[in-house]
Amino acid sequence: MSNLEKQEAKLKDLNQKIKDEKNKIEQRIGKKIISQANLDYANLFNDNIKPLSKKVSEFLKEKSVDH
To answer: What is the model's pTM?
Structure first.
């Protein structure tokens, strides 16, 4: 394997690790929000997840502007 091929393989592996870590963080945030808000998983569908995520997003944006 050439040096370039080795570097490409390392980069691909690193990008996958970054993607996996982002997914873990997203899952933990979602689980924490659901838990803290005492939401029922049975009632969470795309129709109500989207507005909920929008409210959370707007709240966080407001808080980041306040600082």
So the answer is: 0.69
Tally Cβ neighbours within 10 Å of residue 49. 14
- In degrees and rounded to multiples of 5, residue 65 shows phi and psi of -75, -35
Structure tokens belonging to residue 25: 């963080």
Range of the domain at 31: 3-66
Residue spans of alpha helices (H) in 1-67: 3-36, 46-66
Residue pointed to by tokens 């969470």? 44
**3-state DSSP call for residue 67?**
coil
Q: Is 3 exposed, middle or buried (0-12, 13-18, 19+ CB in 10 A)?
A: exposed
Residues in Cβ contact with 1 at an 8 Å cutoff, skipping those fewer than 6 apart: 9
**What's the total number of domains in the chain?**
1
pLDDT tens per residue across span 43-57? 888 888 889 899 999
